[in-house]
Each structure stands twice: as structure tokens, then as C-alpha cells.
Amino acid sequence: MATETEDKEFVPTFEIKSHPTDIRAYQNPFPDYMSAMSNETSLIHIAQEIVISTDFINKIKYFIAEQLEVIGDNYLDKLSYQDDKTVYTGSCGLAFLYIKLGNGMYKRDSKAAKSFLEMAGEILETARDEVYKAYPAFLMGDGGPWTLSILHAQATGDKDSIAKYTAELVHLHHHVVCSKKNNEDELLYGSAGYLYCLLLVRKLVPEANINDELVKKVSDVLVEHGIKLAQSLGPIPPLMYSFAAKQYIGAAHGLAGVVYILLCSAELMGSNENMDNIISCLEYLQGVKYASGNFPTQFGDTDDMRLHWCHGAPGIAVLFCKAYSVTHNIKYLKTAVQAARLVWDRGLIKKGISLCHGVAGNAYTFLQLFKVTQDAEYLYNALKFAEWCIDATKARGRPDRPFTLFEGLAGAIYFLNDLLDIKNAAFPGYEL
Ligand SMILES: [Zn+2]
């Protein structure tokens, strides 16, 4: 629910109306890039490099500083009483945001950076005492607290803790490679979410010495599970995954999320072993795409409804941008471009401004394409969605859990902060 502070401070300069054909979205009130270029270009400057205007950067910084206080007043004090320690909707999500802020925009201001890292440290200390010992994944499992503890130890120069927490993270591999239980494989709870932890630490904290053999083992298990289920259900696609006995397609619970992590694993490891399966899955996903550019929620669905990161084109466009970067196959880029056009039209969804199913998460589609193409139009699109997150108080909707990383305000702040350092911007818990 929008807070009093938000209502007082920001008044949108644009009209908010329902989308003419999509009842789940608002109509995009912004001029498209070509019209905007002929009228106002105050958001971006195109010279040798494409940069965001100082005014807009200041607007983002002001909003972040103000809304961090809102989180502090409404959420932070209550964290110690909450059971949810996950990155997705719990205290560790806030720890992730604070580590990002401590390493990023406040880097030059050591006092502020130190304060963010201290807050992250306190949250993680409590979370480590209460790990669930159930799921290995980053977003909804124990992989989150251990991975963030490693990132935090690196940010604070604590080498002993890097080794200690890495051992805990590695220990979780039993859930994936040794368990006789038929565990989930998807990103949110399952083995793909654990593989994300290993790959993120491998990339950002080389001194943690994540073993390549372990990464390979976990990737192989994911592929084996995918082949097994695919063979039991039918010959196409070559890999299939289920969550709660349903075969989803999108980033959070479905095939696209697992294939994205496998593709990153293959790229980071310099291995082409699983590429044939990955390419066949990409082809299959292209085949089930709707004419609009969106994707079904589950295999067999025909309703073009959900357009957000967890279900629909925004989460899947991340996969196709990566597929284009790795293979240079132009048709994968075209799929991502089509998704971005659709998100520009229908992506201001009424669910709110969150990452998982909200405007901030949808805006990452444009950041992906900007990073891949350096086309200023996508940066313009992302900034207009940022403007919506900042100004469209009445249209922000009512997030399920209003201050959290994946379903609330903390996620919108994470996205806005990523705009200040686009080269290193990455959808948290997913993009590598
Ligand atoms: Zn969602």
C-alpha cells in the first residue's frame, strides 16, 4: 500500500488510465522514443557514451534515500520478529539490497557504506542461526543466507569468514547431488537456484575457490533430471522441469529459468557439453511463444495473461539476450526485442512496482537489451519505467508484501540503484 510519504512527495505528471486491451495493465502514458527524441531528451544524453541526465540521477538518488527511510520506519524494526529469512520476501532480501548499496552508490562515502554493510551483517547473523535446512536455492532457501554472507565477508575484508561460509554453501550440494529425494529443480526453491549461488560466488568472489567439479556436478544433475522428466512426458523439449507437479515455462518456476542458469554455467565454465540440449530448449520456447511476443505460463496454456518476471516474457527475455550474446544467433535477439516492445506496451502492470510481478522487474527487460545492443531507446524505456516507479503513486498497486525485495519497495530501490551503474546491473537472484 502506498505510504503517506509517497503520497505527499510525488505527483505524477502523466495521466493514469487502464490499458485498452489488457485488464491487468495500465496504458503506457509515455511518448515512444522517436517522438520523445524530437521533443524532450532531458532523460539521456547521447555523446561518446550514452548517459543518464544529472537531473534524473539526482531524482533517483533522492527517491532511494527517502524510501530507504520508509523501509526503516515500516519494516526494518519488525524484521527480528519475522520468521521469513529468505531473500525473496524476508530479511535476507534487505541484506542483499544493503550489500549492493554498500558496494555501489555510496562507495565514496565510507560512513554510509559502512552503515549499510553493518545493517546487512546484523540481518545475516540472525538469518544464519535460522537457516531452514530444507531448500538449497538462493531466493527461497539456505543458499541465500550463505551466499550473501560470502559477499558480505568479501565487502568487509573478512577472509576467514569467506572460507567458513563457502564451506557451508558447498555443504548444501548434498541436497542436490546426493539426495535420494526427488527435489525441485527450478530457480526459486530448487537446484537451479543452488547453481546460481555457486556461479555468483565463483564470479564475484574468486578467493572463495568454488570448485569447477562441483559446478559441473550440479549442472549435470539438473540436465539428468530434465532429460528424465522430458522422456516420461514426451520427446519435446529435451529437458523438462516441474514445480508442484506442474510444468511451468517462465523464469521463477519453469524451463526458461533453469535453461538460463545452465547457459550461464556453460559459458562461465567454458563448456559446450550441454549446449545441444540448451539450444533445443531455446528452439522449443520460440515455438510456444504467442504472436504477441509473450509466453504461456504453463505448457499447454493458451491465455496470454501474465507479463512479468516470474511468468511471461520479461523473465524469458533475459534468457534470449544471453542466448544471443553466447551464440550470436540474431533470431534470439529478435525474440528479446519483441518481448521488450510488448513490455513497453503492456508492462506497466497493476500488481505494483515489485521485481517478481511488477514494473521494476519488467524494466529489467530494457536494461538487458540496452546492455546487449547499446541502443539508447532501451535505456529511455527503462528510465520511463523508473519514472513510473517514482512518480505514479496511485498506480503503484498494492504489492503482496509491500517492503520486501521481490514483492515490494526494496526491489524497486534495487532496480533504481542498478540504473546508476548499468554495466553491473543484474536482476538479483537470477542474472549472472
Ligand atoms: Zn511473481
UniProtKB/TrEMBL annotation:
A GO CC term assigned to this protein in UniProt: plasma membrane
SUPFAM superfamilies: LanC-like
GO BP terms in the entry: carbohydrate metabolic process; peptide modification
Binding site for Zn(2+): 310, 356-357
UniProt GO molecular function: metal ion binding
SMART domains referenced in this protein's UniProt entry, alphabetically: LANC_like
CDD domains linked to this entry: euk_LANCL (cd04794)
Alphabetized UniProt keyword annotations: Metal-binding, Zinc
Similarity-based family: Belongs to the LanC-like protein family.
The name this protein goes by in its record: LanC-like protein 2
